[in-house]
Amino acid sequence: MKVFYSLMSLICLTALSPFTVAQDIQGRSFSYLDWEVHCSNTGTCRAAGYQTDSAQAMPASILLTRQAGAKQAVQGKFALSNDGQTLENKKLKNIRLYLNGKDFGAVHLNYSAQPLIGTLNAQQINGLLQYAQKNVKIIFKNNHYTWRVSDAGMTATLLKMDDFQKRTGTVGALVKKGAANESKVLAAQPKLMVKKVNTATKPYLTLQPNTEQYQAVHTLLMAAQPELQDAHVFCEGINEETVAKPQTIELYKLTNHKVLATTLCWRGAYNEGYGAWVLDESLKGKATFVTEFASEFAAGEIRSAQKGRGLGDCWAMSQWIWNGQTFVKTLDRWTGMCKGFPGGIWDLYLIEAVVR
Fold this sequence. Notes:
Keywords: Signal. The protein has four helices and 25 strands. The protein is mainly β. A seven-stranded antiparallel beta sheet has the order 1-2-3-4-5-9-8. A five-stranded antiparallel beta sheet has the order 13-16-17-18-19.
């Protein structure tokens, strides 16, 4: 089903291929059992673990964040919920973290937020990381509530974080520590800086199917389709009475004698995606493909927001900015596996940028 492709292609795909790091950092993600990790183009990695599916009545999650570079400490947050029910403030006092039954003290949290969001102190984080290669029962509880975060997949996920940041075998590794210093670990990179060039907000031309001009432009667009990662048919049109019917093509003026072409490519149970290409204003020559997951376009900005299904409604969000020459991808963010947190609970990035 296309909706699953749109949401999970970047996540599941990377589970089949190794983490690699180029000179310009390419974001990577990995998920295994109840844990996942997203590492962005800045080198920062964010690993999140959740409760098991059988414990979904009390959703719980831990987020471990570490920046690239030598001697970077791990930061920890957590989220606690109650299957969509409001947690009673008077019953939230003295929530403590227990690791394999050992009390690591009360946790700091914001009692006014629902779900509860809190931070872990250095002792609690270091206590958790001591079990990076072992089985561990991670429990938050007080006299009224109990939450448990699964450790299934934690070791594999933290190992991927180490690999991405080139820490494996160093004194700073989380899983496979070694004697090497951190002089050759991945260096942190600043967020991508992109200056947006404003463009038209409304199409100047709409091409209807079965016209000669439509057929010519459609042929150019289809010739520029990406290399597909699954067996789905690219931008086949929307099914009406089991027949895939082509959709109108809208053209927006950009700058530098370029135009943006968009057309509805697919529709699922909860989402739809528009294809987007850049063309010469003559509507001839080679088209440049941008995405088939676009949700909206306005003033030089393409946005994508795709909703998943599961134990909570997860969101995958992307953004492309027109810089006067091309559309630059400035955002690739996933709210995580959700698992009972409606709309997701964390911001897990593959691409981070500053748009000016």
